[in-house]
Amino acid sequence: MSTTTFSLSLVAICALSLAAGSARSQAASTGDVREVGPRLELFVDDWLIERMNGARLQLHHPQPREVAFAFDQPWEGDTCGGVSVFQDGDLYRMYYRGSAWDWTRNRQQYELVCYAESTDGIHWTNEKAARLGFLPASAARPK
Predict the structure, then answer these.
(1) pLDDT per residue over 99-134, tens digit each?
(2) Which one, out of 17, 47, 100, 105, has a CA that is 20 to 30 A from the CA of 37?
(3) Number of domains within the chain
């Protein structure tokens, strides 16, 4: 991507962001009803809240629970992160980054996108990547 193309893309993104923010502010000031349908909404700002008489927004601290997903497959390497989870119909899909670090040479061996799925968001399977052959030839967890 050229510098000019990148600059034009960045300007377009900024313009769209400003337009969306302006529309949000205008809707809030006119008292328009926002249709959220059946989806769940996380209240982290006042976009969906008209007034808060005697109430306040408060984020609670995370509570330690059991492990829902272990990064323990050989193709994931020794470091994983960048986890994104979304619901797709009755299936939860998780995409995350796996990579292997060569500690003796102090450099990365490989990096790849990994995939796992779940029907309940708690119990996950990620064997599909191995069956589909998306693994690099060097994908082996160091001992």
Answers:
(1) 888 889 998 888 888 889 999 998 998 866 554 555
(2) 17
(3) 2
